[in-house]
Write a structure and sequence with these properties.
- The chain is α/β, with parallel strands linked by helices.
- 36% of the residues lie in helices and 20% in strands.
- The longest helix is centred in the C-terminal third of the chain and has 21 residues.
- The chain has a 5-stranded mixed β-sheet with strand order 3-2-1-4-7. Strands 10-9-8-11-12 form a 5-stranded mixed β-sheet, with helices on both faces.
- It is built from 10 helices and 12 strands.
- The two termini are 16 Å apart.
- It is globular.
Length: 286
């Protein structure tokens, strides 16, 4: 059996899977004080016969195994969790092999191995919601360099006549600053869930998301792009994004039909927990 932890900003999911990937049991914990949360996580796993644990956590986190702070959550907006040694504190209480990546990294792993990208060599996974994060997998390996990618924070060229100032505190007109849920709300003066899909805020956001996807496509050339999160889940939004993407790409890049190329997660909200299971199996083998 294998353990999986999906550490989110509001809740923590812990699961135990059998060797074949069936979820046997799980628990949900409210994200609060990190030391208290670690105790609750340990309580869930301590009497189980698991071989290893895979963890997907909100970030930014230190994923460099040669770093002194490997396994720590870094400059997160959640103040109590800043510079918290998540991996170290768990290993003090659970003597098990553990692997750690970002929450979007774990979701990307889940979709690559058992979801929408299971027959692909490479895949890009993006969550577009309160924030924007992503992961890229090539030949089964997550893309990481000095640290994990920050896929929501590259600058996007503004549309002519658009004087909207993005919502990102650091970069304003970055992908997250222009396309996240809070950006739609600030632009429209209303939460996206309360707006009709025909609202102009969705129209311009779809254009910006398409620009972002084209940028990723030109640089990484993934076999598939998987997009989730509240913004993309708005009924009709993915169709707008595909339409704008087709306008941008033209005939220069040879790509599959956008309905096959830009898709929803096949595993839905289970991608992160399943990705933790896959990571745990890899850690156990190593």
């Amino acid at each position: 059996m294998y353990g999986s932890i999906e550490l989110g900003g509001t809740k923590i999911r812990c699961g135990i899977f059998d060797d074949g990937g069936k979820l046997l049991t799980e628990d949900r914990i409210k994200t609060a004080d990190p030391y208290d949360n670690v105790e609750e996580i340990v309580e869930f796993f301590k009497d189980s016969d698991i071989k290893s644990i895979g963890i997907g956590a909100f970030g930014p986190i230190d994923v460099d195994k040669n770093s002194k702070t490997y396994g720590s959550i870094l400059a997160t907006p959640k103040r109590l969790w800043r510079n918290f040694d998540l991996l170290g504190e768990l290993k003090k209480k659970l003597d098990l092999p553990m692997g750690l990546t970002t929450d979007v990294g774990a979701s990307g792993i889940g979709e690559y191995e058992l979801g929408a990208a299971k027959e692909k060599t490479s895949s890009l996974y993006l969550t577009i919601g309160t924030g924007i994060g992503g992961s890229y997998i090539q030949n089964g390996k997550l893309l990481e360099g000095y640290s994990h990618p920050e896929m929501g924070h590259f600058e996007l060229p503004k549309e002519d006549g658009d004087d909207f100032e993005g919502v990102c505190d650091y970069h304003k007109n970055c992908f997250e600053g222009l396309c996240s849920g809070p950006a739609i709300e600030k632009r429209a003066g209303e939460k996206g869930e309360n707006l009709d899909i025909s609202d102009k805020a969705f129209a311009i956001t779809a254009k910006y998301i398409a620009k972002g996807l084209y940028t990723y496509t030109a640089i990484l050339r993934p076999h598939i792009i998987i997009i989730g999160g509240g913004v993309c889940n708005k009924e009709g939004m993915i169709d707008k994004i595909r339409e704008e993407f087709d306008k941008i790409k033209g005939d220069y890049l040879v790509l599959p039909d956008s309905k096959e190329y830009i898709v929803f997660p096949e595993l839905g909200n289970e991608a992160g927990l399943i990705g933790g299971y896959v990571l745990a199996k890899e850690i156990a083998r190593d």
